[in-house]
Design goal:
alpha/beta, 6-stranded mixed β-sheet, two-stranded antiparallel sheet, 8 strands, 24% strand, elongated
């Protein structure tokens, strides 16, 4: 039986990935060419470890080490990065492997809207694991507000961790 289900977001939660403005400047410096796309987050090249230096978030990494060491825990990584984009999963996994980050499951967005994707995933995983407690780590402030609203109306015990402010709210 799973006691606690842990979910870690990828961009700027587990890994400090480049934001578009700085990333495009680094791309130009490293490749000698302008960023060839309009978008950023939907491009697997934005996670190219040969171009960008991406470090793990040490505070979240400490929480990750605690969670994987617990008996009866189940650990997942869930990102809004789109699974259907060629090489996206491969680039995400390369970065996770670089830092020896290993999960019971790795989920990339297969729906479109990141919040909707994560809520559906979390609901399915809580049902699948029959966990007593769900703990999620995220950085997006607008999502944290919505995750807390969702958690308040849920029958499970849920903790929403805001990694930017290093605060959390637990809802029973």
């Amino acid at each position: 039986m799973i006691n606690t289900l842990y979910s870690y977001d990828f961009d700027n939660t587990l890994i400090q990935t480049p934001e578009p403005e700085l990333g495009k400047k680094i791309w130009l410096e490293k490749t000698g060419t302008e960023w060839p796309y309009k978008g950023w987050w939907s491009k697997s090249e934005s996670l190219d470890i040969n171009i960008f230096e991406m470090n793990k978030n040490e505070w979240v990494y400490g929480k990750y080490l605690e969670s994987i060491s617990q008996e009866n825990s189940y650990n997942i990584m869930a990102t809004g990065r789109l699974d259907k984009i060629p090489n996206m999963r491969k680039n995400v996994e390369k970065i996770l492997n670089k830092y020896n980050l290993s999960f019971d499951e790795i989920h990339l967005n297969n729906l479109g809207d990141t919040f909707d994707f994560k809520i559906r995933l979390f609901e399915d995983l809580m049902k699948k694991t029959k966990c007593n407690h769900f703990v999620m780590y995220d950085d997006r402030q607008e999502h944290i507000i919505e995750f807390n609203k969702w958690a308040r109306n849920h029958k499970n015990s849920i903790t929403v961790v805001d990694v930017i402010n290093r605060t959390s709210e637990t809802h029973n």
